[in-house]
Specification:
single chain, mainly beta, Neuraminidase, 2 domains, five-stranded antiparallel β-sheet, 2 helices, 4% helix, 44% strand
């Protein structure tokens, strides 16, 4: 090979390598100079451009507060704030362990732990009807005890008999450890008396138990515990709650799940989802442990869970694992690895499913146990296979820059895009970032222009295209201009019930678009 051909080959190789790591546009969700951690996110079923982000916010320097931000333009820009202290509690109250959700009545709900000091506190749910301008209801969900931890929230948006019901689960450490659960039938104004879904005997206490280790071998603690519960709702209003039941030793811990078909009033018996090895370890200032993630396909009702585990008993590298149930949680597939990016660690997986059944799993990856990146991996066949992992963080970051950051990240999706949210260290401290992963819907025929159940197109004289289509008995719209490289502005057009809509058509005249 002559010199010029060699240089050309090197340039081509470098170009191909660079393109293999092409990045999605990153947006800073929180812009203050202090640290943030444990982000969660949700999108509105009424307007997919309306998003909420939630995180632990250390802008006070001394303690965490309940930080949040709203976006009304699909995540291009955000307005952030702090959830106010509950009535009768001091203004310096701690707020941590957040999660968030929208119902289809325009309400946003923020679930978190609140405490007057650095100890664990009580579980609260706050409600906003105006994108965080005010929080009109801040309700304590747990019954009196101040030894609560790791709550999570879900809502029934199915349009069925329990539509709008809010579900919250959390861990109670007041006596041993127990997974607690309560629900609200009046949009967060009041909650049911908490019940216990699973428990373990007294243990050394949450702070001794949760002290991070510098290795993947946490030693031989003397007891077991339950923690990390997540509720999720299926297409017929069925409710699932998953949690980890920790014992020590290789493959000795389990994820448990219970199902309710009456809105959380009663539950079936606990079923084992998967076995795993308890991990509590530190990567720089990342505190890593095996919280599960859970989501339900809105079409098939299949139940999906993702978690992290060691490669093997002799290989402590961490991998993102995947299991699913096709029979309502009764039985589960064997765990498979869905994100194999070579040596190193993949951790903090979080799963979501959009209205077409497309599965998205967000996670973090570190190949050299120093720098970290965020990724998304997706499945279009209900979790049978997954595509290549997509790197979404634009810059690798060093977790040594920032406060201790730990336990989980977040992701939400709707027709047309996936929105992961993660803690990032590129600015020398722990910040919250997001990226818009634009993915085409997979329902119906991708290139069709006529026929019921297929995509319909209309074109303006200036070259702008408009399309409508039906997916999961809902009518959706998207737009593409002559300068756009992707379809944008996805909107659900039907309101009210989420089923029984079909056969859309579209026309354009004089710059106006008409859909029937």
């Amino acid at each position: 090979m002559n010199k010029h051909r060699f240089i050309f080959a090197v340039i081509a190789l470098v170009f191909a390598f660079a393109n293999s790591f092409a990045q999605f546009t990153n947006v800073a969700v929180s812009t203050n100079a202090d640290d943030q951690s444990e982000p969660a996110t949700a999108s509105s079923p009424l307007n997919p451009s309306l998003l909420i982000g939630a995180w632990n916010d250390f802008r006070s320097d001394y303690f965490s507060q309940a930080g949040y931000a709203f976006s009304t333009n699909g995540g291009t820009s955000w307005s952030e704030g702090i959830v106010p202290a509950p009535t009768g509690r001091p203004t310096y109250i701690y707020g941590f362990d957040p999660s968030a959700v929208f119902d289809r009545y325009g309400n946003a709900f923020y679930c978190y732990i609140a405490s007057d000091d650095i100890r664990l506190g009580a579980t609260y749910v706050a409600r906003s009807t105006n994108q965080g301008t005010t929080w009109d209801v801040i309700k304590q969900v747990s019954a009196g005890a101040l030894d609560q931890d790791k709550p999570y929230i879900a809502v029934d948006n199915t349009g069925g008999t329990r539509d709008g019901r809010i579900y919250v689960s959390w861990t109670d450490f007041s006596s041993g450890s127990a997974i607690k659960f309560a629900y609200s039938t009046d949009h967060g104004v009041s909650f049911s008396t908490p019940i216990t879904l699973g428990s373990q005997a007294p243990d050394p206490g949450p702070f001794a138990r949760f002290k991070p280790s510098s290795s993947n071998n946490p030693g031989s603690p003397t007891s077991v515990f339950v923690q990390g519960s997540i509720p999720a709702v299926g297409p017929n209003g069925e409710l699932y709650v998953v949690w980890m039941d920790v014992n020590f030793g290789y493959n000795a811990a389990t994820y448990k799940i219970r199902k309710s078909t009456d809105g959380g009033t009663t539950f079936g018996s606990a079923i084992t989802v998967a076995q795993f090895s308890w991990i509590r370890t530190a990567l720089g200032k990342l505190d890593i442990l095996n919280f599960p993630s859970l989501s339900v396909d809105p079409i098939s009702g299949y139940v999906y869970a993702s978690f992290m585990d060691q490669v093997s008993q002799t290989n402590p590298d961490l991998r993102v694992k995947w299991v699913r149930s096709t029979n309502g949680g009764s039985t589960w597939s064997s765990p498979t690895t869905i994100a194999g990016l070579g040596s190193g660690w993949q951790f903090f997986p979080w799963v979501t499913v959009d209205q077409t059944g497309r599965i998205s799993v967000a996670f973090m990856h570190s190949g050299d146990l120093s720098l970290v990146d965020s990724y998304v991996i997706e499945s279009y066949d209900r979790g049978v296979t997954f595509g290549s992992a997509l790197r979404v963080s634009g810059t690798s970051s060093d977790p040594e820059n920032g406060a201790w950051t730990h336990h989980y990240l977040g992701v939400t999706s709707t027709v047309g895009y996936t929105r992961p949210i993660w803690t990032d260290y590129r600015n020398g401290n722990a910040d919250i970032y997001t990226a818009r992963v634009n993915r085409p819907p997979t329902s119906n025929a991708a290139t069709a222009t006529a026929g019921n159940g297929q995509r319909k197109l209309a074109r303006e004289s200036n070259g702008t295209y408009h399309q409508v289509f039906e997916t999961n008995q809902e009518i959706w719209y998207a737009r593409k201009t002559t300068t756009d490289t992707e379809w944008n502005n996805y909107q659900r057009l039907n309101s009210g019930t989420v089923s029984g809509n079909s056969s859309p058509s579209i026309a354009e005249r004089g710059g106006k678009v008409y859909v029937a």
